[in-house]
Amino acid sequence: MSVGRVRTPGVLGALAVLGAVLVGCTSGGGSDGAPGGPSGSAPGSTGSTPTGAEPALTEAVARQVFEKYVRENAAADAKGDLAATARIEGGRLLEESRAEARLRAAKGEKDEAVRYVKPVFLIPGAGTGAGAGTAGSAPQSFAVLSKRQGQESDRSSVLHYFVREGDGGGWRAVVATWVVTEPAAGTPSPPEPEASPEKGVIALRPEVLPSPARDASGRTELSPTGVADGAVCGKYGEFLSFTVPGGKPDSPYFVKGEFTGKLVGFLNGWHEKQLVRDFTYRPVGQALPVFRLKNGGSLVTCTLEGTFHDRGRTPADWISTNAGSDTEVLLGRAGRKWSTIEEVWSVTAVVELPKGGGPATVLSSNAYKPTKMSVKGVEWK
After folding, report:
1. DSSP of 151-208
2. Is the per-residue pLDDT at 304 higher than 80?
3. 67-72 long-range contacts, Cβ below 8 Å, gap at least 24?
4. Which of 9, 97, 139, 327 is close enough to 1 for a disulfide, judged by CB 3.0 to 4.6 Å?
5. Among 37, 107, 5, CA closest to 368
6. 171-199 pLDDT, tens per residue?
7. What CA–CA distance (Å, rounded) separates 89 from 146?
8. Is the pLDDT reported for residue 361 higher than 80?
9. Which residues pair with 177 in a beta bridge?
10. How confident is the model at residue 15 (pLDDT cuts 50, 70, 90)?
11. Could you tell me if 6 and 22 are in contact, meaning their C-beta atoms sit under 8 angstroms apart?
12. Residue 21 in this model has a pLDDT that exceeds 50
């Protein structure tokens, strides 16, 4: 699976990061119906390793894991080799790669081979929670910020999480998402109008990722409240679960911004009086390390499963999919009418929790264009 920027006019959820270049998540692009609407109408320590213990997770080891992943992922994408992908990916990321492969096959498209460069490693230091490992053992997970080759000047970075499977097991990438890591150069431009700068592009101004906190050895500190911090993923899922146009842009748990209030407004715009449309989100996937930030806050990456239900308000009402849309392709039938359509989506979100509590800031999310894991429908008769 490749993660990078997307700029495809006519694709639902192409993201324009104002004052920067474009970011998003894709594995090959493609059109998904009407623009803006639904598809229907620092180094680590080395140290010694005791005999029989797992190798210490140093930056050198993490770099080897990352470079192997980059190399083998590019080769697997170029060949469309899912068996090879399964040797280097796991968890939700592998499920997404398989779903995207099914869509490409249905559309007769090939994946794009992508390489990631300029890595910055987030290797867990002392702490508790996911990624810390057990007493006397090496950390079982780490994260990497990197750039997509050819887009090194992009202000956004790809964020991968790697997990070691079992005692002495291999490393696999289990999550791939993105976040803005560099502020815009020069004086900030005045606010842009809400309208997209061009057809099919959603104008966004994401917040910049604060610097992670590092200990004396250069490792990234884990949040001392990591287990409790992870509850924000459930809150975000609840926030995005509603029937349009009843989504509430304000929440006591989140700062109003591009991936909260604006996103809810975008989804509320899917309302059609002949249809009932609702979203349900829940956290899925394995626990990831929660890193402490220099400002005292915490960095949480969420993986959510969303279900989008689309159905006629009465038995006389029906749904038509947009010609050539991903939904139509996955349903396998063009030009049909449907009484109900159910789509399962995969969404990631990177969230900053402030020190001492208070509303969280969603730094990034692919919720404007989620990965479609499956689509099924009941034909209207």
Report:
1. -TT-SEEEEEEEEE-STTPPEEEEEEEEEE-SPPSSSPPPPPPSS-SSTTEEEE-PPP
2. yes
3. 69/160, 69/162, 69/171, 69/173, 70/115, 70/116
4. 97
5. 37
6. 999 999 999 999 987 655 555 555 545 66
7. 17
8. yes
9. 159
10. low
11. yes
12. no
pTM of this structure: 0.84
What is the phi/psi pair of residue 105, to 5°? -60, -40
Q: What is the 3-state secondary structure (H, E, C) of 88-133?
A: CECHHHHHHHHHHHHHHHHHCCCCCCCCEEEEEEECECCCCCCCCC
Q: What pLDDT, on a 0 to 100 scale, did the predictor assign at position 45? A: 33
Closest CA to 176 of 375, 320, 347: 347
If one counts every other C-beta atom within 10 angstroms of the C-beta of residue 277, the result is: 22
Residue 50 clears pLDDT 70, i.e. is over it = no
Nearest to 275 by CA among 323, 237, 308, 311: 311
DSSP 216-229: TTSPBPBPTTHHHH
Give the number of other Cβ atoms within 10 Å of residue 344's Cβ. Answer: 16
pLDDT tens digits for range 200-254: 678 899 999 999 999 999 999 999 999 999 999 999 999 999 999 999 999 999 9
Closest CA to 147 of 194, 108, 180: 180
Distance CA 366, CA 11 (A): 13
How many residues comprise the chain? Answer: 381
For 69, the enclosing helix (H) or strand (E) is: helix 59-79
Least confident of 82-91, 126-135, 271-280: 126-135
Which pLDDT value is given to residue 34?
Answer: 32
Q: Tokens standing for 159?
A: 């964020």
Task: Note the pLDDT of residue 331.
Answer: 92
Question: What's the CA gap between 164 and 174, in Å, rounded?
Answer: 10
The whole-number pLDDT of residue 10 equals 26
Cα–Cα distance, 130 to 115 (Å, whole number)? 28
SS3 content of the chain, % helix, strand, coil (to 5): 20, 30, 50
Kindly state the tokens that stand for 74: 């590019």
Please list the residues that pair with 220 across neighbouring strands: 124, 214
- 190, 184 Cβ separation under 8 angstroms: no
